[in-house]
Amino acid sequence: MMLSNALPRGLSVAGLIILLDQLSKYWIIEKVMRPEGVDGTPFHSATRIEVLPFFDLVMAWNRGVSFGIGNSGGEWNAVILSALAVAICVGMAVWLAKAETLPLQLALGGIIGGALGNVIDRARFGAVADFLDVHVAGYHWPAFNVADSAITIGAVFLIADSLFAGRDSSKN
Hints:
It contains four helices and four strands; from the N terminus they run αββααββα. A four-stranded antiparallel β-sheet has the order 1-2-3-4. The protein has one domain. The longest helix is centred in the N-terminal third of the chain and has 27 residues, at 6-32. By secondary structure, the protein is of the alpha+beta class. The protein has helices spanning 6-32, 77-98, 102-125, 146-164, and strands at residues 48-52, 55-62, 128-136, 139-140. It starts with 5 loop residues before the first helix and ends in an 8-residue tail after the last helix. β3 (128-136) and β4 (139-140) form a beta hairpin. Helix content is 53%, strand content 14%.
């Protein structure tokens, strides 16, 4: 049974992710990491604030893709990565319009929202703002943000839906 509200539901999730992502980045860039009275671009701080023994707030600018891969790219890097992300989002929106299961709709909405949240950063700053820093038992995960989390969680939902939803979801 095709859910007629698949696209609006998934795009609502995407919109919520974009809103949460951009609000969290505004808060970290403008309120937490920017010292009072400092002018200039937001590419200014390497401050680390310990929140928990395994979790810090940091300010890291990623000009590449996930985990800093391609971080040394030139000025066209942001344009190319953004265009690629938007093209993938369009394809995922087409898939979303046909999605029959709620987990698939949520997954695609999360991935689309996360990708577009990072596209907004690339358009505004030429890089993606990462600020969540997790380190446990000597292992240090690269800094990430709300959009990255939504993409990762969406990908996990996507895999779970494809593995466990049964034969009917193979139409998606």
